[in-house]
Design goal:
15 helices
């Protein structure tokens, strides 16, 4: 198979090596240089030696004392090797994968003999924890290199191919973008798939992920994560201090605060970090952002912050059970059968999107129904008519975002008044937007289309043209995997003084009552949307996640 065709992905032109700027390759003072090389192990290297190679699950930061190293993207099935950049003395080779656990997707080869110092991942994390000055320089460099690689030939090391209207293809892209993976996505028009036959791919094989040129048919985020080394791998007899289940704002805040305060921390998310916040096109009422901030940008910076403090982030990684195995020890069961043993758990699993009970809903979930309005979804519908369903802030923000990018919008609100559940500033802007038609006291009652969504039926106006339906009708708490915890009738977890079910033995033995954010099970906490009584706002979720860590410390002290 040689996917060099115009649709499946053309061979890129030869490119000049990347010129490393002052951020990607910072100039180190003598003192900084000495501290950096002291963290590693010296090694003499000869021309032709590889200091790390593509596919290595564990590789080191390579600090070059003398000689020269070139970073290359290895030859793939349909294109040759490309030199990404060349690095000389008093520089270091490596990128963000060193922090998030991703295996090497580039190789580094010696072109001039000399001496290097290997800094292992563990040594790098220790250095960044102990040396704020070097931490900032290294983190900025690794992040800038990752951003540079995203638009160059390195992106061909992870390539997704699928139909543009496929939600399975969209899920792969969302997974890669939320984790900031270097990748390329090739969207095939639904009616123009003829060239697939020449590449030995059928429509049933889509989406395909090419990992280092090798095809992974019917790819899912979980399969891709496994191949990239991003799935959870327990170390022998490992017990972590804190497992955070759910990567939304509450979970990210909890993980960051926990790791920054010395707790060994694992963060899990069933899809990709970000939760509903990452699906929000614009957050305008978050402290410190007077001009608003996109959910994607906010979450991206939070993930980088988590990596800085040593949080181990795994996604997609779904928790399916929680069991107490001994006093002070908990097992978090994963969907693949693996177990994570922990001293404490914070549940921030959020809520699952609600769906409309309509015929053909599942048909169009793969080609026209969306639960987020971000640049990814916008590319599927830009300039085309859409329907947004919901009466809260997320629906209003989505309608304004889509209309601002050229899409006529029908906003369908079940309630009588737009301002009942929506902030007044949003309701006012929607009322003034000529591209948005607001239908109150209305419901979506039907969907139609041949393969992809073409029209939506609204009970008060009839059929309207629509190439996308954006559903923001709330969510159900993701707590079905926690049947033994005390929950309210709607499934939200009770915490602290709200806990109604307590067994005398487990609390009297501890000599205390549930702490703030602690559930009916000792050392198990809940924060964010999943918790009964939470405010359901990004800022509130961040506050809850960080505050829950304070209770974790108190619980671990007993």
């Amino acid at each position: 198979m040689s996917p060099e065709g115009a649709q499946v992905g053309a061979a890129e032109e030869q490119v000049d090596p990347v010129e490393m700027d002052a951020v990607m390759s910072p100039t180190l003072s003598d003192e900084q240089w000495e501290r950096l090389i002291a963290a590693g192990t010296a090694e003499d290297v000869a021309v032709g030696d590889y200091v790390f190679r593509t596919g290595e699950p564990e590789y080191d930061l390579i600090v070059i004392e003398s000689g020269e190293v070139e970073v290359v993207r290895d030859a793939l099935r349909w294109v040759g090797e490309v030199v990404i950049t060349t690095m000389g003395p008093r520089t270091f080779a490596g990128e963000l994968g060193l922090l998030n656990g991703q295996g090497a997707f580039l190789s580094a080869r010696v072109t001039e003999a000399g001496r290097v110092h290997r800094v292992t991942r563990a040594q790098l994390r220790a250095l960044m924890n102990e040396d704020d000055e070097l931490c900032d320089l290294i983190l900025h460099a690794l992040w800038a290199r990752r951003e540079s690689l995203r638009t160059g030939p390195a992106a061909m090391t992870l390539k997704f191919v699928g139909t543009g209207s496929s939600n399975d293809f969209l899920a792969l892209r969302r997974f890669a973008e939320r984790l900031d993976l270097v990748h390329k996505a090739v969207a095939l028009p639904p009616g123009d798939l003829g060239t697939l036959d020449t590449h030995e791919i059928t429509v049933d094989d889509l989406p395909v992920a090419y990992i280092q040129g090798e095809p992974l048919l019917r790819a899912t985020p979980g399969l891709v994560a496994e191949h990239l080394g991003l799935s959870y791998q327990a170390q022998a007899d490992e017990v972590v201090d804190l497992v955070v289940v759910g990567g939304g704002p509450a979970g990210l805040a909890a993980a960051i605060y926990g790791a920054s305060e010395g707790l060994s921390t694992v963060l899990l998310d069933a899809v990709a970090p970000g939760g509903q916040a990452a699906a929000t096109s614009r957050i305008e009422n978050f402290l410190g952002f007077p001009f608003g901030v996109s959910g994607g940008d906010l979450i991206g910076q939070a993930i980088l912050q988590a990596l800085k403090f040593g949080v181990r982030v795994y996604a997609p990684c779904e928790a399916t059970g929680l069991t107490r195995v001994a006093p002070g020890l908990l097992d978090v069961a994963l969907s693949d059968g693996r177990l994570i043993r922990a001293r404490s758990v914070i549940v921030t699993s959020g809520a699952a999107y609600r769906r409309l009970d309509l015929d053909r809903w599942q048909d169009f979930e793969r080609s026209g129904v969306y639960y987020a309005a971000t640049p990814l979804e916008l590319r599927q519908v830009q300039g085309k008519p859409v329907v947004v369903v919901g009466g809260a802030n997320s629906a209003g923000q989505a309608a304004l975002y889509l209309s601002a990018h050229g899409s006529p919008v029908h906003l369908v609100v079940r309630g009588e008044h737009l301002g009942t559940r929506m902030s007044s500033y949003l309701a006012d802007r929607l009322a003034d937007d000529p591209r948005v038609r607001v239908h109150t006291s209305s419901n979506v009652v039907g969907l139609d289309g041949d393969g992809t969504l073409e029209s939506v039926r609204i009970d008060t106006v009839g059929d309207v043209d629509a190439r996308g339906l954006f559903c923001f009708i709330g969510a159900t708490p993701a707590t079905s995997w926690l049947p033994t915890l005390d929950r309210d009738p709607e499934g939200f977890i009770r915490t602290g003084t709200d806990v109604a079910v307590q067994t005398l033995d487990q609390w009297q033995g501890l000599g205390r009552e549930p702490l703030p954010f602690e559930t009916s099970a000792p050392r198990v906490f809940a924060a964010g949307d999943v918790r009964r009584g939470s405010m359901k706002r990004v800022a509130a979720a961040v506050g809850e996640g960080s505050s829950a860590v304070a209770s974790v410390h108190r619980a671990l002290a007993y």
